[in-house]
Amino acid sequence: MDKKQLRLLMIEDSEKDVALVVEELREAGYDPVWQRVETDDALRAALHKDHWNIIISDYNMPHFDPFTALKAVKELVPDTPFIIVSGVIGEDTAVKAMKAGAHDYIMKHNLRRLAPAVERELEEAKIRLEHRQAEVARVKAEQDLQQGFRRESLKRHILEMVSQNLDLDMILSHTAESVGQFFEADRCIVLRYEKETDNEVLIKLSGQYRHSYEIPLILEVDVPVRMIHAVAESQPTGSYTPRVVDISNSESLLEQIKNYTDKHNLSFEKVLSVIKNFIEKYQIRSFMRQEIYYRGITYGVILLYQCQDVRKWTPEEAELLQDISTTIGVALYQEELYRHEQEARTRAELAIEEAEQANKRKSQFLSNISHEFRTPLNAIIGFSQMMDQELIGKLNEKQKKYANNILISGQHLLEMVNRLLDVSKIEAGYFTLSPTKIQLKPFLEELNAFVVEQATHKNIRLKFDLEEGLTSITADKSRLRQIFVNLLSNAIKFNRPGGTVSVRICKSENGQGILGEVQDTGIGIPEAKIPEIFSEFYQVDSTSTRKEEGTGLGLAIVKRLVQLHGGSVSVESEEGIGSTFTIFLPFKMPSKTKIVQNCPDFEAARP
Question: How many angstroms separate the CA atoms of 52 and 82, rounded?
Fold first, then answer.
């Protein structure tokens, strides 16, 4: 039998005692790799240098004690098990050690307890690590969600400002402030390209934000400002992805300056001197630039400066800045149309027509975006319910139809969000079950009530069958209902008008649980697609012309809920004949549940 690998750190002043501990672990089937330390400095060095599965400490040492060792362990590797081995230790001292963070204590005359204690503590350490990782994942998910809300809020704020304000200078100035604060940049400026000639672009500084008064203001758009950002322009014409420049990377910057001076036939030394002075004056370490554009025309640029250190902007930040620049580009586009109208009096009629068309497109664009961003999902459902129930006044048939469509769509979105949350909680390990004893006959009656309206609407016949003598099972009732309702809803949805959906619950052949079968006479599932149907977001018919809506999460949730109960799920189907989904649930739920791909007892459990 292969021995179990074990990295062991011994806090011990006696080589003999170390040998006794190692020999005991070897006899128990471990293959320990160990290191002995006997001072606080040596312990901390070992903890920094290597990873240890477990730490075993003597209690009586002349220059070190386990309480000092525990302090270092809790500070550096709090999840690592710590066991005290002692020749003589009183009950009060043992209690004190456990309160200080020790996981167990073993008497030297009873080392037979050591291996079981190590086995137990390694398993508990694994569980602690899994919990910690799950908590880190949960916190990150919450942070990502909050950051997503903040990003959408910023885009909505700028969109509203553009749609409600005609003062372009105020829009650009406020954009610099809002973007700079959101990105926590040291400086943000918005430059507007006023007029383009054959040799240069006239630039106007339209907005500027500083993180603190220690960051110097850029008072005017002089030659260095234009030059450094012209050097940074390495994107081909018509490409408007953000460009990040690391000023601290002198080799890369020198190469860009060389390319720029060669292209424009300028003195490399003079341009280098101008740019160096600019960087030093305005304390620039790195920056991200995003052109403001619309319809293939560049109207200006948004610049985020980092003055204290080099910053690595994320792809999400770059994408957000690109979205903002597009929104501002719409406003600048409208402003340019108006200016051209005034300048081209001889073409007034054509300019007016183009401006009106552009205004219509802008209004439609802003209306759609505002509707999606301003109206929370709960408000959609709530107000549409009020309209559908005529709580705010009578509606005609056409109005009632529209209100009902809104309600159905809102509920569909809410269902999708709930299913996504269910999947996320299950995979993160935060999905808990509340087992209770469920009487199966009343449970089947409840299922019938849940889906009878859906079945009646599609002229589907429902049949429920419970094996005689089978009365109850222990499970989470709400989740068991969710399992069967998902399967029944699919069976009805993909059935033919006039078809049949049958539910049968019986005892498994091995007597360890129940089998629940949901059978339909529907369209069936192609054999090649059966292995994928329990995957998230998978839909058998994924074309844009499919008849039935869905998120592709229902069966994935069924599978995970069944597995959390310690069971398994399978499907048999034949195209044009129908499908049968079978779940196996044990009578007794496991004390610890985890997601597994297959349940080895399932086939044996079939009747």
Answer: 11
Return the half-sphere exposure (C-beta side, CA atoms, 13 A cut-off) of residue 569.
26
User: In whole angstroms, what is the distance from residue 565 CA to residue 593 CA?
Assistant: 7
Tell me the one-letter amino acid at 430.
Answer: Y
Asked if 461 and 499 touch (Cβ cutoff 8 Å), the reply is yes
Q: Report the C-alpha gap between 100 and 117 in whole angstroms.
A: 18
Q: Token pair of 598, please?
A: 């297959």
Give the C-alpha separation, 412 to 376, whole Å.
14
Question: What is the mean pLDDT, run by run of 10 residues, along the chain of 607 residues?
Answer: 84 88 88 90 90 88 85 89 81 78 84 88 86 83 74 76 73 86 87 65 78 78 55 46 63 74 80 78 80 78 83 82 82 72 62 59 40 54 72 76 71 59 56 84 88 88 91 88 88 90 90 90 86 68 45 76 89 89 87 44 33
Q: Are 439 and 471 in contact (CB under 8 A)?
A: yes
Query: What is the separation, in whole angstroms, between the first and last Cα of the chain?
Result: 38
Return d(Cα 21, Cα 28) in angstroms, integer.
Answer: 11
Whether 331 contacts 168, CB under 8 Å: yes
**DSSP per-residue string spanning 389-434:** TTTTS---HHHHHHHHHHHHHHHHHHHHHHHHHHHHHHHHT-----
The three-state DSSP-derived secondary structure of 246-306 is: ECCCHHHHHHHHHHHHHHHCCCHHHHHHHHHHHHHHCCCCEEEEEEEEECCEEEEEEEEEE
Q: For residue 368, what pLDDT is reported? A: 41
For residue 176, what are its two tokens?
A: 């610099």
Q: What is residue 532's DSSP assignment?
A: G
Q: Which residues contact 16 (CB under 8 A, 6 or more apart)?
A: none
DSSP 3-state percent helix, strand, coil across the chain (nearest 5)? 50, 20, 30
Question: Do 36 and 10 contact (CB within 8 A), yes or no?
Answer: yes
Which pLDDT belongs to residue 355? Answer: 59
- Neighbouring residues of 243: CB distance < 8 A, sequence distance ≥ 6: 232, 233, 234, 235, 288, 289, 290
**Cα–Cα distance for residue pair 291/298, rounded to 1 Å:** 6
Backbone angles phi, psi at 94, to 5 degrees: -60, -45
Task: Quote the DSSP letter at residue 265.
Answer: T
Report the alpha-carbon distance of residue 396 to residue 83 in Å, rounded: 77
CA–CA separation, 519 and 491 (whole Å): 7
Q: Where are the alpha helices (DSSP H) in 77-113?
A: 91-100
Structure tokens at 234: 């390495």
337 CB-near residues (< 8 Å, 6+ apart): 351, 354, 355, 358
Note the pLDDT of residue 45: 92
Under 8 Å between Cβ of 431 and 425 = yes
